[in-house]
Amino acid sequence: MEIQPIFSSFLIQEKLGLDTQSIKDWAFGQPNLNQLKVELNFNEPELQPLYNSVNSILNQLHTFLGFKSTTQQQIYEGWVNLETTDRTSVPHTHPRAHYICIYYPHIVGNVGFLELTNPNNALEYVLPQTHLETIVEDHNIFNSQLWQVEPQEDLLVVIPAWLQHYVRPNSSNAERMSIAINSKILP
Question: Which of 46, 61, 122, 135 has its CA 20 to 30 A from that of 8?
Answer without folding.
Answer: 135
